[in-house]
Amino acid sequence: GQPMTEVTFYFNAPDKLATARSLAGKAYASGRRLLIYSSEHPLLASLDTLLWTTPSTGFLPHCRASDRHAAETPVLLTADPEALPHHEILMNLDRELPLHFSRFERVLEIVSRDDEEDRALARDRFRFYRDRGYAIQRHDLASRS
Fold first, then answer.
1. Averaged in consecutive runs of 10 residues, what is the pLDDT profile of the chain (145 residues)?
2. What's the pLDDT at 60?
3. What is the helix, strand, coil percentage profile of the chain, to 5?
4. What residues have CB less than 8 Å from 86, skipping those under 6 apart?
5. Which stretch of DSSP H or E encloses residue 126?
6. In terms of DSSP H, where are the helices of the chain?
């Protein structure tokens, strides 16, 4: 079968969307394709705006997974867990794990520094991955600043 999905948690994010923007930029720079998932439409709309405007000197090509240009766009946003245009990197910004996360080569999870509910939900997802034997990498964003 296919190799097991690599899971990476980024802890202590002061701003989840800014961190998502930064990680999306890194994925794009490395030539990888990224699918960003959340069932929360306002969150995706905010991230969409951020990807258009930050950094002011750069631009990250992105669109919705349902867009007709999705096939050639490196960063995709979706609220539909069934819409999987590729299986490279999945960024999960949702409370729940999308059903088909294990089809991806990598899954990225971002955990808020200050939002207790977000942290508690992330702990549940962490346990879920761990209990199923996924290798989990951890990055503490607090220790970098």
1. 89 96 93 95 94 75 92 93 88 93 96 97 97 96 76
2. 84
3. 35, 25, 40
4. 33, 35
5. helix 116-131
6. 16-29, 41-53, 116-131
